[in-house]
Amino acid sequence: xxxxxxxxxxxxxxxRKFFTFISLFGISFTLLVLTVVTSLFDHAFGPGxxxxxxxxxxxxxxxxxxxxxxxxxxxxxxxxxxxxxRNLPGVERLSIYEGERTVHxxxxxxxxxxxxxxxxxxxxxILEFNFLEGRAYSTEDVADARLVAVINATxxxxxxxxxxxxxxxxxxxxxxxxxxxxxxxxSELRTDPYAEIWxxxxxxxxxxxxxxxxxxxxxxxxxxxxxxxxxIHEEFNSQLLRVEIPDPKHYEAIVAPFETKFESFARFVPTxxxxxxxxxxxxxxxxxAGLGLLFVLIPTVNLVNINISRIMERASEIGVRKAFGAPAxxxxxxxxxxxxxxxxxxxxxxxxxxxxxxxALGRSGLFSYAQFxxxxxxxxxxxxxxxxxxxxxxxxxAWRMSRLxxxxxxxxxxxx
Length: 416
Fold this sequence. Notes:
Blueprint: H1 2-15, H2 17-45, E1 57-60, E2 63-66, E3 71-74, H3 78-84, E4 91-98, E5 101-107, E6 110-119, H4 122-126, E7 131-134, H5 139-143, E8 148-152, H6 153-160, E9 169-172, E10 175-183, E11 197-200, E12 217-223, H7 229-240, E13 253-255, H8 261-266, H9 281-313, H10 315-323, H11 328-364, H12 376-402, H13 406-410
Parallel strand pairs: 6-11, 8-10
Antiparallel strand pairs: 1-12, 2-3, 2-13, 4-12, 5-6, 7-10, 8-11, 9-10
Helix pairs in contact: 1-11, 2-9, 2-11, 2-12, 9-12, 11-12
């Protein structure tokens, strides 16, 4: 029966090429946009080889110090993280690192700009970089403030023309570092591991950062297991209640929660309450769901109207089949198969276009070192959405078709 439906659906879709083209365009364009957006989110927040334990990793990306007279929103300060984030129960490893910043180097009169990040040694134990040469710097390197550096493959090409870099020296931010390791390039959208040059944080040219409660620093905590993550979040929140505020005349509290990467991103949504230490992810999910629903609703309504027109054009055919005893469920099943087949074809076209668009984005240099692809997870989401799209846009027209009386259908009319 299903094979018969499929053969008939193909013949019908080929017979009405205009309706088919309009439907395919709407479906493929909708799937194209949704797939590209989903791939970008998956690339930034999904599990990856460099962050394989993201499912039990918590981050502090933002901090807010507020009071009745002022609000200060930025990254956390080193002192805040160093004094209050260490030795939390349930934490297996903790890394404190500075956000990347642009530094400049000069080689033979040529200016080279690089993203430099200062980190501790635990940074390399929580994340899993793919080393092309050498090694990461150790706890001893950090404690002794040794001027050593790990660079990415592109930096090796820029400074050393692709030749082996370990043992060589490079100048960055007015300091000369000895290269001890080279890693594969890391996508800019992987904000925590991303940089082009990594050096021990103790090599900073000033110790002023050690007294700062706000500004420039991040923390990454690897929990012993997923069950420990809520306790880590709550314990650090309670620790912050005892923080000695540096300017009590203007500020009275600090919020800097340990959260998952997606939860941290949710705090950038305009509707998020950054003073609330509890998760704001539901606001981001609500916003994305609303935008996604609005984006899908318009082509769905258009497709429903097209499908109704397609049914009315076939009213006489439906009337003849009903007059000869074809049950309503058979006709409904046939039309739903036609519609699902149409959306699946549109989905395949949308995926092909998505691959081309993602490749173009990767080559554009808009996001440094980003290589986008449609992995099986994104493909499964897209195909499920395509089937759902076909069912939703086909149910109402199929129901209208099932209510057609043979006499009305033969006249090309609609039953009341």
